[in-house]
């Protein structure tokens, strides 16, 4: 351990005299050689962390484990989270991402470190080349590796993939043995549960020096209580406004976790009102296969395992790690209607604006909706013109939306059209509501509703389970059927296609990804196509998670949509 200090990395040419790596060099070397089998692959830490074929992730897991420990040491030993998941990707894939102590995504300034360390291990011909990179990072961030004073703390979780237990061993191999980290393994959890537990563990430690780490059980208790409180506040009989909700859990981890929540002794809604389908999380190859949020959103049809029942029934689909949810229903003419992330954010915006108005707080608390360019144009018009709420547009990627929602609004509602989103309530929101309630001032029902609703939302990250409960509560309070929700506005016909190009990195954008700067001249051509289609809007950007360029198009006339989109695609193809 601290005894075997490596003498200043002589072989790697690293010549710092100031710095000593107080870790077991030989042990680290042995684990590196045993674990890092995948070599010469370039890794990039994108919006979703690292994500690729599971068989290629051993090296990345090893270095990400080290980085999580360093992040915790940098933050005085606070709990840092690590989630092993590839979300909606097929079962052969896997991935990993680091979570900050407050439950948000890894600080952007540390993403390059994640890549440097992974690529150093991937391309190094000797262990010392990798070690030199590690030393450089530790020095640069001035991290004290003397764990006798502060031990690093890490919370790890994984979704239901078959490859995850092996990858977990690669991830944690050095944590305790080399860095003396306290590692809490949550086992199989949803991504939002990992975020929630990481946040709660740190809050407990900070607020009352609580030595025990939070658990999955805390999550169930908290959200069930919040749901029940909201229903009690409203004195609604504990029945949903829809006769039945079918939940497609994509054969992922959302299935078993939702079942645990519904089995909580305090859960009061009759069990026959919610039915879970596609819950075979123990059959690896079924994960996200012809089901789940991504499948339903992309194909705009019912997933496997569901057939139309009554038009009053509501359906929803989670993705594989349950951080996204989309809703839908089928009308009496058997037509499928999608209620996606845009519809969820507009429902919440309508409900919360009403409550703010009832509580007479519209002047003191600012509510707003944050979207990306993928939001349907009709939703933006509806929020601005019908709800009179401000709308912000950010780049794709939850961290951008999250940041805007947290910094610009007291109630910042953000959702990507694909169903990933949440609501951030500011400190001022909590103080204002608390102060009004303590003085018993104003409309107590509205104040209590706002208070309870804020608890029902997982503010650390988009959460399929918590968002689903919040939608059910909102529909019940507003006494809305799925058709009423859908009727608030009508989506413009739209299309999203993938274009495979030799090098997607040449597609550089500006204006929150709505305009291309490069390839030169392409945007002018796109603009000339858009001008031909009434209510036309289109943009092109390189995907951050796939080796492709995405083309989005929407226009008034559904019969012209394919032609509109194809014209843009042709210009994209001819520009490379
Ligand atoms: P990319 O591949 O960068 O378009 C996709 C989604 C994002 C987000 C990330 C995962 C679309 C169009 N894009 O990003 O919204 O969910 O994956 O973090 O759905
Ligand atoms: Zn996901």
From TrEMBL:
Q: Which UniProt keywords apply?
A: Isomerase, Magnesium, Metal-binding, Phosphoprotein
Q: Does the keyword Phosphoprotein apply?
A: yes
Entry-linked InterPro entries? A-D-PHexomutase_a/b/a-I, A-D-PHexomutase_a/b/a-I/II/III, A-D-PHexomutase_C, A-D-PHexomutase_C_sf, A-D-PHexomutase_CS, AMG1_II, AMG1_III, PAGM
EC category = isomerase
- Reaction equation(s) it catalyzes: N-acetyl-alpha-D-glucosamine 1-phosphate = N-acetyl-D-glucosamine 6-phosphate
Domain called Alpha-D-phosphohexomutase alpha/beta/alpha: residue spans: 63-108, 150-199
- Binding locations of Mg(2+): 87, 319, 321, 323
Q: What does the record's cofactor remark say about binding?
A: Binds 1 Mg(2+) ion per subunit.
Q: Where is the Phosphoacetylglucosamine mutase AMG1 domain?
A: 211-326, 340-477
GO BP, one annotated term: carbohydrate metabolic process
The record's active-site residues are 87 (phosphoserine intermediate)
Q: Which Pfam families match?
A: AMG1_II, AMG1_III, PGM_PMM_I, PGM_PMM_IV
The biological pathway it contributes to is: Nucleotide-sugar biosynthesis; UDP-N-acetyl-alpha-D-glucosamine biosynthesis; N-acetyl-alpha-D-glucosamine 1-phosphate from alpha-D-glucosamine 6-phosphate (route I): step 2/2
Q: Which cofactor does it need?
A: Mg(2+)
Q: Which residues form the Alpha-D-phosphohexomutase C-terminal domain?
A: 496-570
Which PANTHER family does the record associate with it? Answer: PHOSPHOACETYLGLUCOSAMINE MUTASE
What's the stated role of this polypeptide? Catalyzes the conversion of GlcNAc-6-P into GlcNAc-1-P during the synthesis of uridine diphosphate/UDP-GlcNAc, which is a biosynthetic precursor of chitin and also supplies the amino sugars for N-linked oligosaccharides of glycoproteins.
Instruction: Give the family from UniProt.
Output: Belongs to the phosphohexose mutase family.
Can you name this protein? Phosphoacetylglucosamine mutase
Q: Which organism is it from?
A: Saccharomyces pastorianus (Lager yeast)
């Amino acid at each position: 351990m601290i005894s075997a200090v490596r003498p200043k990395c002589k072989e790697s040419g690293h010549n710092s005299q100031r710095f000593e790596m107080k870790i077991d060099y030989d042990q680290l070397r042995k684990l590196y050689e045993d674990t890092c089998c995948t070599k010469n692959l370039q890794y990039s830490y994108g919006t979703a962390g690292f994500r690729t074929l599971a068989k290629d992730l051993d090296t990345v897991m090893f270095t990400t484990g080290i980085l999580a420990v360093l992040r915790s040491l940098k933050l005085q030993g606070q709990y840092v989270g690590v989630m092993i998941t590839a979300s909606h990707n097929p079962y052969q894939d896997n991935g990993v991402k680091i979570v900050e102590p407050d439950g948000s995504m890894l600080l952007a300034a540390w993403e390059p470190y994640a890549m440097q360390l992974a690529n150093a291990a991937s391309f190094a011909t000797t262990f010392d080349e990798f070690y030199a990179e590690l030393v450089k990072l530790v020095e640069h961030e001035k991290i004290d590796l003397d764990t006798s004073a502060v031990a690093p703390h890490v919370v790890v979780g994984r979704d239901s993939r078959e490859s995850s237990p092996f990858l977990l061993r690669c991830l944690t191999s050095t944590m305790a043995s080399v860095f003396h980290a306290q590692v809490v393994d949550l086992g199989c959890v949803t991504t939002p549960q990992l975020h929630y537990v990481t946040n709660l563990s740190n809050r407990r430690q900070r607020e009352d020096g609580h030595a025990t780490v939070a658990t999955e059980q805390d999550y169930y208790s908290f959200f069930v209580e919040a749901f029940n409180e909201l229903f009690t506040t409203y004195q609604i009989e504990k029945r949903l406004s829809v006769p039945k909700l079918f939940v497609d859990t994509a054969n992922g981890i959302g299935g078993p976790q939702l079942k645990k929540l519904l089995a909580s002794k305090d859960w009061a809604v009759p069990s026959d009102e919610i039915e879970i389908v596609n819950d075979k999380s123990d059959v690896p190859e079924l994960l996200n296969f012809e089901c789940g949020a991504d499948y339903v959103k992309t194909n705009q049809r019912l997933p496997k395992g569901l057939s139309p029942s009554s038009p009053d029934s509501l359906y929803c689909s989670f993705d594989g790690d349950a951080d996204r949810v989309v809703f839908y229903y089928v009308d009496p003419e058997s037509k499928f209607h999608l209620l996606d992330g845009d519809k969820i954010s507009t429902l919440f915006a309508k409900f919360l604006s009403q409550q703010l108005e009832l509580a007479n707080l519209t002047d003191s608390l600012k509510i707003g909706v944050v979207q990306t360019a993928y939001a349907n144009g009709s939703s933006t018009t509806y929020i601005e013109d019908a709800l009179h709420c401000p709308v912000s547009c950010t780049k794709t990627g939850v961290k951008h939306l999250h940041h805007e929602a947290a910094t610009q609004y007291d109630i910042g509602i953000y959702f990507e059209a694909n169903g990933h989103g949440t609501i951030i309530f500011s400190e001022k929101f909590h103080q204002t509501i608390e102060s009004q309630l303590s003085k018993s001032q104003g409309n107590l029902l509205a104040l209590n509703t706002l208070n309870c609703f804020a608890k029902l939302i997982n503010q650390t990250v988009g959460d399929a389970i918590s968002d689903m409960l919040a939608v059910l509560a909102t529909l019940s309070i507003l006494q809305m059927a799925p058709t009423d929700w859908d009727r608030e506005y009508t989506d413009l016909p739209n299309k999203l296609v993938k274009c495979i190009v030799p090098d997607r990195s040449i597609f550089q954008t500006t204006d929150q990804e709505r305009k291309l700067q490069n390839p030169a001249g392409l945007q002018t051509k796109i603009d000339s196509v858009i001008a031909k289609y009434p209510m036309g809007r289109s943009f092109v950007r390189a995907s951050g998670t796939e080796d492709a360029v995405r083309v989005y198009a929407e226009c008034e006339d559904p019969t012209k949509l394919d032609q509109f989109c194809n014209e843009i695609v042709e210009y994209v193809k001819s520009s490379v």
